[in-house]
Amino acid sequence: MDISRSPLAVPFPAMPPIDGVTLHVARAHYKNWDRCDLTYVELAPGTVVAGVFTRNVCCSTEVELGRESVTGGSARALVVNAGNSNAFTGYRGREAVERIMGQVSAYLGCNPSEVLVSSTGVIGVPLPLDKAEAGVAAALGSAECSWEEAALTICTTDTFSKGVTVSAMLGATRVTLNGIIKGSGMIAPDMATMLGYIFTDAAVEAEFLQACLSGANQRSFSCITVDSDTSTSDTVLAFATGKAGNAPIASFEDPGADAFMAAIEDICRQLAHLVVRDGEGASKFIAVSVSGAVSDDSARIVGLAIANSPLVKTAIAGGDANWGRVVMAVGKAGQPADRDRLSIAFGGVWAAREGLPLDDYDEAPVAQHLKGSDIDIDVDLGLGMGRATVWTCDLTHGYIAINADYRS
Amino acid sequence: MDISRSPLAVPFPAMPPIDGVTLHVARAHYKNWDRCDLTYVELAPGTVVAGVFTRNVCCSTEVELGRESVTGGSARALVVNAGNSNAFTGYRGREAVERIMGQVSAYLGCNPSEVLVSSTGVIGVPLPLDKAEAGVAAALGSAECSWEEAALTICTTDTFSKGVTVSAMLGATRVTLNGIIKGSGMIAPDMATMLGYIFTDAAVEAEFLQACLSGANQRSFSCITVDSDTSTSDTVLAFATGKAGNAPIASFEDPGADAFMAAIEDICRQLAHLVVRDGEGASKFIAVSVSGAVSDDSARIVGLAIANSPLVKTAIAGGDANWGRVVMAVGKAGQPADRDRLSIAFGGVWAAREGLPLDDYDEAPVAQHLKGSDIDIDVDLGLGMGRATVWTCDLTHGYIAINADYRS
Q: What integer is the mean pLDDT of B376-383?
């Protein structure tokens, strides 16, 4: 299938090296293609890991084993297989993942649980043992590659490679955070991202890293949706090598903790946005901001009801400021809302206030806004102080073309 | 907009008259069109009414007032406006509905609350008082029309008129039930149907009629979905004139109660299926049967997660037996499920059993089944005795074309 680049794509940024992180890619030939499809990241001894995973109860072996590894808190390597998700493959799937963990841990002389494995692609086909083994062997012996090559190698149906770099000052020490991510369909919260990886040279303890990642996830990956579907493999991992030499951070009371948390949240939000920008068939990036809800959680649920509504998403695709469909989506969210207090704006222009269409509503600037590629929908429920922003894309013919044709 | 007839359309059936029910239609010119868009149904004195309504909290005035009328339990008339939903129109919308209720009740010499009003179409534009008044006046003075004309007049974006007739023997008395319904998009449970009306000559008490309708709704209108969206106006009303002369039924202990309940459930299910068959852009009618759940409710929620999944719906549109997407949808439903007990079949052929793809899975008969227009997906969760069937349609380019272009 030849999918052209998303019109919302952004260029891959220049990404600095991270001390303690080396990247490699190889051809495992998981599918009948001639591209790199296995990514191997080697991490210096002492690296700590945190993770958030899909809530899909039919999750993959990789997710099950990943949760165990994250509980241990230390990591030496990451292997990402592209083209085969290895999900719903029973004991045969588990055997393949354990084989990779054994192969890499023998090479590094570490515990198998310190080798994190992810797989993405078709569900229901066990990862072939021989191809995985040969692929890992090739990666172990290969030269280092760039961040962009690694970002490209974890992709499947993505139309562009996705990376973000940010930095933070922890006291007098500058630390770097690099993230790569893949995902374009089957994206919805209660774990939004398909596969995302964040690497930093900061010195932080595993529990603190987990607290930062879990918190940031609530306001980033859990606030994006492409098609309301949730993959069986969704995973975001964060690795910290500690090589920057800052005074290690163990809790939010420690110096630099706030700056690090802000950097994690920043990189998570930027990575999440990149996934939406590659939403299958997306032609517009939509930010839905809900205020006046009874709580932040309630605002997020209302925002997701709007962002997941096929009728809202198709209206935006058609450049139609159809606020009636937004009303409908608010009402079906199952959250406290009062029709007669509801206000709705597109591109900052109120179309309806407190339950009534505005008599002097000027559609011209709204129509102009909807012609652009970045769309803002604001909803004020008029009830309380809760607020949240969620991000999605429009629903177009492209989504249908990709998903009615893409095959297993 | 010119939408051709749904490929899943069925012919309008021959429908017998119902004693105590007379049908009229008129042109209210709610939109700039030259078609009948106001339906007036006159009901004999003594008619009882029951209703189920949208759970959308941003519901229309018609729904609010309809709930009150149903509580009263008696009805003399039904007015249905097509082209304007009158939803989210504040006090101006309420004034229009009350005006219609007053106009008709003055004509019939009944209580205004005995006049039920529904409106369907664009949200956010108050129903114009003058057009409504002239339309009602024209309908009151018009000749009787046929069931098909009435069914056609309540339609908006529907591509075919929808009617069902069934009968039941209550003791020695045959009673007739006729139903008409409209709806093609913005269809999802917790009230599935947009506007549906059932008329019968049976003699039943209002509370019993309500119990029958509420029960049937759980296994019919609440089990269909086109796009997961829920309208602000969804309404199903049932009217019983009592003219058949059977011994009145007051409770499920009375003779004939079971037969009547079965007939109500039958007509509700048939009407619900017609809505799915006119799902926007639908090319395939999909029945998702879930068994082995921990409860019937749980089975229904899992079924709806599958039926609402854009990835499942596009796979069916593409004729792809992509059971991996079904696994994903089961897992995201938030209900008890165990990946390693899950079995999935298309067209009665198991693709996966107890968590593993079948080695001898023969895709040929499945591919043949998926070329047809009626698709069966069976899911066995392997946990308990709960079961449910839900119905939906596929997601096609037609849905996008209709909804990215349809305007307010």
A: 97
